[in-house]
Each structure stands twice: as structure tokens, then as C-alpha cells.
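Ops channel
N.P.: pipeline sanity check, posting one input/output pair.
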């Protein structure tokens, strides 16, 4: 499953991480997609958000970049764009 991200276009991954996909106008849609595509990351993010008090999306990004460092560039782009 770790190689799955390498089979997707970079633009899709950037949109997926940042939540800018057309089908994700609602933040809950992004959360549902993340639960479907990466349930372990989502579960860990849920636990992190619950114990630290940060919101789920920030916790998800932190867990995702810790477990998949190659995707850190997408989170950095999202943060630098101000989204």
C-alpha cells in the first residue's frame, strides 16, 4: 500500500491532501475520503487529535507526513498557499 501514492499523479495527491478536489467541497467529504483511502492514518490522526486537542485535519497531516515523508511536500505547498 505504501507504493500506492507513487502511482497517482502529483496534482491529484496535492489536491487530495489539501482538500481542493471538486468532489470535496464539504470538509466532511475530505474526511470520509481519507478514511476510505488511508484508514490507519485516519485512525492514528483521530487518536492524536483526541489526546492533543488539535483538529482532525491537522493531526491527519502530521501523521501522514510522519509515516509517508515523501508526501510532506504536498502539505508544505498547502500551508504556503494559505489554504
Amino acid at each position: 500500500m505504501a507504493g500506492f501514492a507513487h502511482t497517482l499523479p502529483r496534482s491529484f495527491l496535492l489536491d487530495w491532501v489539501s482538500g481542493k478536489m471538486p468532489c470535496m467541497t464539504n470538509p466532511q467529504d475530505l474526511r470520509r475520503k481519507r478514511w476510505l483511502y488511508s484508514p490507519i492514518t485516519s485512525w492514528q490522526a483521530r487518536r492524536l487529535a483526541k489526546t492533543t486537542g488539535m483538529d482532525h485535519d491537522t493531526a491527519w497531516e502530521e501523521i501522514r507526513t510522519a509515516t509517508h515523508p515523501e508526501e510532506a511536500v504536498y502539505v508544505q505547498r498547502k500551508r504556503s498557499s494559505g489554504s
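N.P.: looks fine end to end. Helices lie at 10-18, 27-37, 39-52, 56-67, 72-81.
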